[in-house]
Design a protein that fits this description.
Blueprint: E1 3-7, H1 11-22, E2 27-31, H2 34-43, E3 47-53, H3 64-76, E4 82-86, H4 91-99, E5 104-107, H5 112-149, H6 160-173, E6 179-182, H7 189-198, E7 207-211, H8 220-225, H9 242-245, E8 250-254, H10 261-273, E9 275-277, E10 284-286, E11 290-295, H11 299-304, H12 310-316, E12 319-322, H13 333-341, E13 346-347, H14 349-357, H15 363-377, E14 382-383, H16 385-388, E15 392-393, E16 398-399, H17 408-417, H18 422-428, H19 433-442
Parallel strand pairs: 1-2, 1-3, 3-4, 4-5, 6-11, 6-12, 7-8, 8-11, 13-14
Antiparallel strand pairs: 9-10, 15-16
Length: 448
């Protein structure tokens, strides 16, 4: 159970705070000096919140003692929230400490309801952060276990969504099932295909990649199945097709949704029979190829409109791996940023928060380009928001409204980032306070 540490040199104040919190089932422990408070903090891991006075010596009103205690606690427990008990004579010091990470300040004499609401809100956030840390530790353990038995091809991720996807990719890789990878542009479909190939029974065979959507309709047959010398204008020697080159290995067909009707028909035949002829030849050839395809197109919708063959869809889609957009997995953003910029660069906290709350319509590819641009524009190895040049509301210095509906995880993260201040969390997600509250109600989140 969470516990609140009360630090004040006035026993009557300690007793009053203890009574108020205990009446609402909030456990407390008390210290009458900074030194005693630090001892309790060092020896009680259940302490999740500190309420501290700003002065401890008689006739002292500068707030320096409270400031010293604040930074001593911050050094021991960097993430623990702190509420400062202030008087008007040292309010400025308390405000400065809030800028340095204090969660809130309460003026003496305090308002019971305001103090209680702040404590309850911060304890809930602390429990949420603890749960998030535990989930992160559990995820790290799963990643290590998976990496010990599979080749993850240096994939960078930290989100549960990606862990589930990668686990499935490794599982189905060892079968001969045709796999369709779906997801928006720039989300990393080719990397998932590499993981499937690297963990398959044909991993020692060739891995041939082809953007079928970019193939000219008149050259599809030659590209996929090869051509004899003189089979078409300009061909002076025999050309090996992609299927033949991939024999005994894996063929990755990217941008499948853009394949022409002619290309779809020819592709279906070789998938059904394993047979094909080079252009300009009547000799039937055979190949055994593991096919992985990828698309950002809604193929079911394309089938309804007659733009994609239903029989080809089911031939290619025995197993579908759905790759989520980057905005659906915000936990992956910071690890990716750190990977793209390298250890020699640092990022200002404001920039980090904005990068994590931006919609990234171009997904990982857009994020990588933004990081490369930032490294070019900076002169001192410290990256600021301006260096990334992502679209923001310049009046607030916050990202534009999300292009997709924020998830419960994103809302929880925004609240944690802003220490429960709803107005700031709403701005971070590009929402009004009312819209933010509606999302909280939708996800059955407690509203204080």
């Amino acid at each position: 159970m969470s516990k609140v540490l009360l630090i004040d040199d006035n026993k009557a104040i300690l007793d009053a705070l203890e009574l108020l919190l205990n009446l609402h089932d909030i456990e407390t422990c008390k210290a009458i000096s900074p030194q005693a408070g630090l001892v309790l903090l060092d020896n009680d891991s259940a302490i999740s919140l500190v309420i501290q006075d700003m002065n401890f010596s008689e006739d002292t009103t500068s707030g320096e003692e409270g400031e010293g205690l604040f930074f001593a606690i911050r050094e021991r427990r960097p993430d623990i929230p702190m509420i400062l008990m202030t008087a008007w004579t040292y309010l400025e010091t308390a405000v400065n400490l809030v800028k340095n990470g204090a969660a809130d300040y309460i003026s003496k004499p305090w308002d019971d309801q305001k103090l209680l609401a702040s404590v309850q809100n911060l304890l809930e956030l602390s429990e949420l952060q603890t749960d998030q840390q535990q989930r992160a530790q559990d995820l790290d353990a799963l990643k290590r276990e998976l990496a010990e038995r599979a080749d993850l091809c240096s994939l960078i991720y930290q989100s549960p969504l990606m862990q589930s996807l990668v686990t499935m990719a490794v599982q189905v890789a060892r079968t001969d099932a045709a796999i369709l990878i779906t997801g928006p542009n720039g989300s990393g479909k080719e990397k998932i295909a590499e993981i499937v190939q690297s963990n398959s029974d044909v991993k020692s065979g060739p891995f041939i990649k082809v953007n079928v959507g970019a193939l000219h309709n008149e050259l599809i047959e030659a590209e996929l199945f090869g051509a004899e010398a003189g089979a078409y204008t300009g061909s002076k020697k025999t050309r090996i097709g992609r299927f033949e080159a991939a024999d005994g290995g894996t063929l990755f067909l990217d941008e499948l949704g853009n394949l022409s009707a002619n290309g779809q028909a020819k592709l279906l035949r070789v998938l059904q029979t394993g047979e094909f002829e080079r252009l300009g030849s009547s000799e039937t050839r055979h190949c055994k190829v593991r096919v992985i395809s990828a698309t950002n197109t809604d193929l079911l919708e394309a089938i309804d409109t007659g733009e994609f063959r239903e029989d080809l869809y089911y031939r290619l889609n025995l197993i579908e791996l759905k790759l989520p957009a980057l905005v659906e997995r915000p936990d992956d953003i910071l690890p990716l940023v750190n990977h793209f910029i390298g250890r020699e660069y640092s990022i200002e906290p404001t920039a980090i928060r904005t990068l994590q709350s931006y919609a990234w319509p171009g997904n990982v590819r857009e994020l990588e380009n933004a990081c490369r641009r930032a490294k070019i524009l900076t002169q001192d190895k410290t990256l600021t928001l301006e260096h990334f040049r992502i679209p923001v509301d310049t009046s607030l210095r916050l990202p534009k409204k999300f292009l997709v509906e924020p998830s419960k995880v994103m809302i929880e993260q925004a609240l944690a980032d802003n220490r429960g201040v709803v107005s700031q969390a709403a701005r971070q997600l590009g929402l009004s306070r009312q819209a933010f509250y509606r999302r909280m109600e939708k996800h059955k989140m407690p509203i204080k």
